[in-house]
Structures are given as C-alpha cells and as structure tokens.
Amino acid sequence: MNTRPKATGCIVTYNNADKIEKVVASILEQTRDLDFRLIISDNMSADGTADIIRQKFPQVTVVENHENGGFGKGHNAVMDMLDSKYHFIINPDIFLTNDAVGEFIDYFESHDDVVMAVPKLVYEDGTEQFTPKLTPSVKYMMGGRLEKFGNPFKRWRDEYTMRGKNVTEPVDCGFCSGCFICIRTDIFKSIGGFDERYFLYSEDADLTREAQKYGRTMYLPQISVTHLWERAYMKSNKYFRIQLRSMFMYFNKWGWK
Question: In the chain, what are the domain boundaries?
Fold first, then answer.
C-alpha cells in the first residue's frame, strides 16, 4: 500500500512525437504504485504529439496551449491544476528506469529544509552527463562555450559541472537543471513558477535562485534518470541567439559576477 504523499509531474512538449510515447510509458510504469498525476502541456505541436498522448495514455491530462510561449510559460500553464505536495518538472527526453520519483519524495519527507532538488543525469549507456551544478557566473558561461580551446576554459567548465569531484553524497546545488526537477508544490506556487521572460535556457537557473529564498536546493547523485539528450539543434544560430539573450537576462537580474 502506498503511503507516500501525492505528487504531480509536467512535461512541456513541442513536436516531440518521435520519442514522447517511450518517455510517458516509462514514467507511468515507474509511478504506477504512487499517487501520481502526469500532465502534458503542449506548445502547439504540429506533429500530433498531443493526439498521440490522448490515444495511447487516456489517464494522462493533456493541456493544449494556444501559443508556443516557451519552456517556463508552458510549465506555468498547469500551475492551477497542481494539488500535490511535490511537483516534478520533466523534460520530454527523460526516461525512467527506476523509482526516482518515489526516492525524491522519500528524501524530501525526511529533509524539511530542502525545497528543490535534481538527480544525476545519465546517457542511455549509463555514463554520467556533467551538467552545471554550481551557480552560473560569467566565467563559467565562457568555459561552457570555449572549453574546446583548452584551459583555462576547460578548467572553468569542469569546475562548473563538478567533473572529477566524484560526488556520491547529496550536495547543495547552485543550478538545478530543468531536465528533471523535484520541487515542493507550495514553494513553486509561492515563487510564481518560472519567470516567463525566458523563452528557453536559464529559466531553470533563475528558478533555482528564487527557490533558495525558501530553503536548500540540492543535487542528489544517489537518484538517477536517463536523459535522451540530443544537442545537435543547439549548434544552430537561432538557438545560440536565444541562449545568449537568456544569459544576458539572467545576469542583468542576478548580477554580473
């Protein structure tokens, strides 16, 4: 019998028909014994993503937005529907192979000072993805873009992602990646959700800073989820411009450090 408190999860989709069925099936399978509700917030997909969800998974709530307002706005669109104690922000390329949702709930239940946390992200072959874990800085942003030129940029990038630290115990996290986040629902609502001025990129770093006003934000390496990461699109000029704009917005808000 499940005694864990209720949780909700939201995936914002935009033309994700190629993998969304696999993603949703994995989440439903791994949360079948929990009081868990999954919501899809679709940003006007043109490839039938919303229809696939409705046909294959009638137990999933689908919200069709009237515009592609971006990642944060898509998640905020379901805020009034959240009646849970814990809420999960999930990317449309996350695949669950274990009881990650339940493990997060258990950790939060025994750590009242923690308001938001992220797991270890791994590729399909099990190798770790080194995503940012320290608070963003101008230096770290440069390292992320220029690490191919060697040091000091590579050293900055490694420091930013804690590469080589072999983190095996929970640690405070300055940047909770939006790929998969567990947050206390009341805190998410108190913050007002994501800052919708960010269309894409940095909105998760911004949410982390806002959440830190209420408690600790953590990286929990003992919990892992699979990230079906495809970075090819990030190399386009369009996405680079969006990323640059979001970065400037973030530092204008939180300070150029």
Answer: 7-254
